[in-house]
Amino acid sequence: MADQFEDLVRTGPGTPMGQLMRQYWIPAALSAELVPDGAPMRLMLLGEKLVAFRDSTGRVGIMDHRCPHRCASLFFGRNEANGLRCVYHGWKYDVDGNCVDMANVPAHQDFKTKVHARAYPTAERSGLIWVFMGDAARMPALPPFEACLLPQDQIEYRFVQRRCNWLQAIEGDLDTSHLGFLHFGAARPSTDLDSSSRNLVVNRAPEYKVTDTDFGLSYGAYRPADGGGVYWRTAHLLFPFWVMPPIARIEDNIMVRAFVPLDDEHCMFVGIAHKDYLRENRARKPLPGGTLIDRVHPSTTDWLGRFRMVEAEENDYFIDRDVQREQSFTGIEGIHVQDQAITESMGAMVDRGLETLAPSDIAVVRARRLLQRTLAAFTAGKRPPAADQPELYANLRGGYYTSPKTDDWLAQQKAMVAHASPLTVA
After folding, report:
1. DSSP 8-state assignment for residue 299
2. Which residues of the chain have pLDDT under 70?
3. By C-alpha distance, which of 336, 319, 313, 321 is closest to 183?
4. 52 has which bridge partners?
5. In the 3-class helix/strand/coil scheme, how is 210-232 assigned residue by residue?
6. Quick check: 399 and 250 in contact, CB under 8 A?
7. Backbone angles phi, psi at 368, to 5 degrees
8. Distance CA 335, CA 203 (A)
9. Domains (ranges, CATH) in the chain?
10. Which of 9, 72, 201, 276 has its CA 20 to 30 A from that of 402?
């Protein structure tokens, strides 16, 4: 790994980027993963080993897994009567980390009011548990992403672990030119394809516009549209690890995804979307290898045991070389699996010093420069983008659309989002 990116990719305790990420709310778990008085769950976030539990009244606690007494793991604790009790000596903690009982200490020697487990503030909204790992005095409101504010019965969540560093996963979403090859490389121009698919396969080498924003970065890939005009695929990078890629047409693309660092070599894909944002696919002819189904193993109790994909390096992501020769470009079934295979194939932490970048990588390059500038400013005392202004995340979408020209592309995008009709679940 090139030394110039060391501070960008590492997010563990005490690292500059880890401290920056702690200024934001982090999606930690699905509400359904925790039940009142149920077993504590091991949770790895930003290189920290934590336990998560739901107490008798339904409140969620996320704290350091080590009991402050003798550092035994609270994963083995008893979740009972509104607290997590360490099985080593019976000390008990509430969701805020307060010690509420010292079972092995005589009453006249009790000092529980002076003992606290390191616990982080949590919030729960529409089936998703969030955690704030920074200074509680500077805790902002939850981010108002459009997809997060939908009624819960209209939200689709996807958690999938990826075995690579968070930044290389994000850079995959910032690289839109791979779509015409990795995912749709076997497609050929034909009247059987809809106009969006034809735009991708007729011209697989778009040009780009990129601009810094108050929340991060926006970019657009553009090319001549089938039938005239300009076909745009626009997207956003939002601090610290969110992206809004052009998965669907902009009128429908109510979605956001994060690549949350678990440790330096693993991240969690967290997708939040309207359940019917891909409704255009219902009428679209399937492209070879282009399914969207994720297959994950049942979760286990180890630190990295949640939402691991069935397709993995050890089974070569079930690549079928005959299918690759005769039907699809990759021989790997599933868009997400294809992304997983490629980003993980770079290694857990890619050595960017070995890259040969091209004009098509402009969004990736600009994002790295932005991250470097922002991290330098943060270490000098400046607050990072949107950390204190989560309202900047409102009313944003990526997506694809056709317009008559290439200028004022951001204004066109904002106007289309503003005038989009609300989606309803079909």
Report:
1. P
2. 1-2, 188-203, 406, 425-426
3. 336
4. 41, 62
5. EEECCCEEEEEEEEECCCCCEEE
6. yes
7. -65, -45
8. 20
9. 25-138 (2.102.10.10), 146-418 (3.90.380.10)
10. 276
Which residues sit opposite 207 in a β-bridge?
222
C-alpha angle 108/112/117, rounded to 5°?
160
**Length, in residues, of the chain:** 426
Tell me the helices (H) and strands (E) count for the chain, helix number first. 8, 19
Instruction: Find the helix packing angle between 166-174 and 362-379, rounded to 10°.
Output: 140
Q: Which helix (H) or strand (E) holds 242?
A: strand 242-244
CB 79 within 8 A of CB 72: no
How far is 267 from 261, CA to CA, in rounded Å? 4
Record the tokens describing residue 225, joined without a space.
Answer: 């549209």
Q: What pLDDT, on a 0 to 100 scale, did the predictor assign at position 309?
A: 97
pLDDT of residue 418: 85
37: Cβ–Cβ under 8 A, 6 or more apart, which residues?
A: 54, 55, 56, 79, 80
Contact in structure between 236 and 398 (CB atoms under 8 Å): yes
Q: DSSP 3-state assignment of 28?
A: strand
